[in-house]
Amino acid sequence: MYSTLKMLHHYWAYLVLFMIVVATFNAVYKTMTKKEYEARDFRMSLFTLIVSHIHLLIGLVLWFAADYFSEMSMGEIMKNATMRSNVVEHPVAMILAVALITIGYSKHKKKLTSTNKLKSIAIFYSIALVLVLAKIPWKAWLNL
């Protein structure tokens, strides 16, 4: 079960990254060119929100199922750069990224004009994208 979830988490991440990139660049492009906000933009930002939340839930299940703390103390984990990245930095960064996506989505719904809606998505999703790109375990991604 754990290996299935781990594989799902790994491959679902490609979908999440793809959706964040597409939604971000769409919002940035439409903001810069002063295009109108459309139903397609709403669906795109909503789908990004949904897939990122699902991915976060899978990741949290994996984090709790891995039981890192029975094998090592927190001090030992923090001294080991790879373990620190996997156990602390990656989960915290991804939780923040999903929170930013959620905030951007919520804020954009409250705006009344196309420019403001798209700007909210562009800002928050861009910051989330930077966080995701910064904390993806690239060695694991390229080896699998």
Automatic annotation (TrEMBL):
Keywords: Membrane, Transmembrane, Transmembrane helix. It comes from the Bacteria. The chain crosses the membrane at residues 12-32, 44-66, 86-106, 118-138. The keyword Membrane applies. This is 50S ribosomal protein L27. It comes from Olleya marilimosa.
